[in-house]
Fold:
Amino acid sequence: NAGVMQNPRHLVRRRGQEARLRCSPMKGHSHVYWYRQLPEEGLKFMVYLQKENIIDESGMPKERFSAEFPKEGPSILRIQQVVRGDSAAYFCASSYEPTGANYGYTFGSGTRLTVV
Amino acid sequence: DAKTTQPNSMESNEEEPVHLPCNHSTISGTDYIHWYRQLPSQGPEYVIHGLTSNVNNRMASLAIAEDRKSSTLILHRATLRDAAVYYCILRAGGTASKLTFGTGTRLQVTL
Structure:
């Protein structure tokens, strides 16, 4: 059973381009979370999605960032018109959450975005 | 989210036990105590979690104070591969919710 798969592992974009980061959750997990880690900083929550729905986007920048988790296929974090400050490691996590239960999260290895 | 307080860094010798403390004095009755660790250049890794009772798994043990205002992650025999940043996180139970990471404890393991 493969873990959480993120691709690409490394992504280089020029300022103004679009970045698309993909996350395939563990089999059977329907909850996906995206986190960003700036260099030498801690992980910051961005968005929580459940199949086809955004549950909590309180950590998402208001502009240029969007996320989706379609019925079929991976979750996508999209950053439009990237700027140097977007350079960071982006981690995806998934979890299995029947109502009332509490489980650990499984994180992917991350996508390291560099904006030049 | 209720806050947790951890020491910034700790050191341990290899093959010795390590006790990583965490204070969470404002914990609510439905909050679970989660521990994750992040090795250099990797994503966070789940270690253990608990609610009220002490918990053991193949990676570590979690000792929870009777009043739940503090907990301790115990690595029974530290190895060089345990060098990482360890995060103590409170997560609301009952419904799915995000994890809020603090600054964690950077554990150094030396020979």
Notes: The first strand of chain A starts at residue 5 and ends at 7. Chain A touches chain B through 27 residues (CB under 8 Å).
